[in-house]
Write a structure and sequence with these properties.
Number of domains: 2
Number of strands: 5
Oligomer: single chain
Radius of gyration: 35 Å
Order of helices and strands: HEEEHHHHHEEHHHHHHH
Structural class: alpha+beta
Length: 289
């Protein structure tokens, strides 16, 4: 085990506090909150300053003299700390409430191996406590102050969750965006027809649309996918079906105008490429919002 002297330990602690901490404003008093192993610790020193900015340590020690306080923080440790020294706790509890009884956070931590209260020196030092204990202290200090403390703490957590959700969604959207655009390039945007494809006369007008959008006829698709039931359109995505519906209407207009099948095929292929690109771009913008 590597031994670190108290000064080094306090320096490391202060750096961690600075990196992981946030401040909330409770009724004009700034309260430092930091996260450690997914648990929030709130500065009891800052809370005590609400009552007396010059004698916060005295306020805190008065709170820890109460028998009800000792019972509460001891019960918290019993539930959350497997290394808690319950024998020492019983001795402190028996003395609590008497005129001669005095207890500091440091003595409580060292005697019972408590983890719910943390006491450190330095720039970001002071006495911190798990949020459960901090709310109990605030309640003893002022019911009104506890109310506003809880409200501000909840607001802080909601903002963190929103930020976390937004960041995760944003990063996921970026990943999906690249996956999606690569798939579009490879599979979704129809390829421009070759001269050989254009030169073939398709007996079925349905195949004119199939070739313009998918690049193959219905027969060619069935031969390539003998294990699948139905036809190529049964396995189309929503964008392809939208495009196909538009192309059917356009093809009807072109037929009425007397446009030859070969020319219609070329036009419909260009329309399919353009519309699928538009639909893909709309989908990408939605993903990144």
């Amino acid at each position: 085990m590597v031994y670190l002297n108290p000064n080094v330990q306090n320096k490391i602690f202060n750096e961690l506090i600075m990196a992981k901490s946030k401040k909330i404003d409770v009724h004009g008093t700034e309260i430092l909150v930091y996260t450690e192993k997914n648990d929030e610790y709130i500065s009891l020193t800052d809370i005590a300053r609400y009552r007396d900015a010059e004698r916060s340590d005295y306020i805190l020690q008065n709170w820890m003299r109460n028998r009800s306080t000792i019972e509460f923080i001891g019960l918290w440790e019993l539930f959350n700390n497997p290394d808690f020294n319950s024998i020492e706790f019983d001795g402190i509890k028996n003395l609590a409430g008497s005129n001669s009884f005095a207890l500091t956070p440091k003595r409580w931590i060292e005697t019972t191996r408590a983890i719910g209260i943390v006491s450190k020196t330095g720039r970001y030092g002071g006495t911190f406590a798990h949020r459960d204990i901090a709310f109990e202290f605030a309640s003893w200090l002022s019911a009104e102050f506890k109310f506003y403390l809880i409200k501000e703490f909840q607001r802080l957590k909601e903002e963190e969750q929103k930020q976390l959700g937004w960041t995760a969604k944003r990063e996921l959207a970026k990943i999906n965006y690249h996956i999606h655009t690569d798939a579009i390039k490879q599979h979704l945007i129809p390829a421009e027809l070759t001269k050989e494809q254009i030169s073939v006369v398709y007996a079925s007008e349905a195949d004119v649309l199939n070739v313009a959008l998918y690049g193959i006829t219905a027969k060619q698709w069935r031969e390539a996918n003998p294990e699948l039931k139905g036809n190529i359109r049964d396995y189309s995505n929503i964008n392809e079906l939208i495009c196909l519906s538009n192309m059917e209407n356009i093809n009807a207009v072109l037929i009425n105008d007397g446009v030859l099948q070969r020319e219609r095929l070329i036009r419909l292929n260009k329309i399919a490429i353009q519309q699928m690109q538009v639909l893909a771009n709309v989908e990408n913008r939605k993903m990144l919002k």
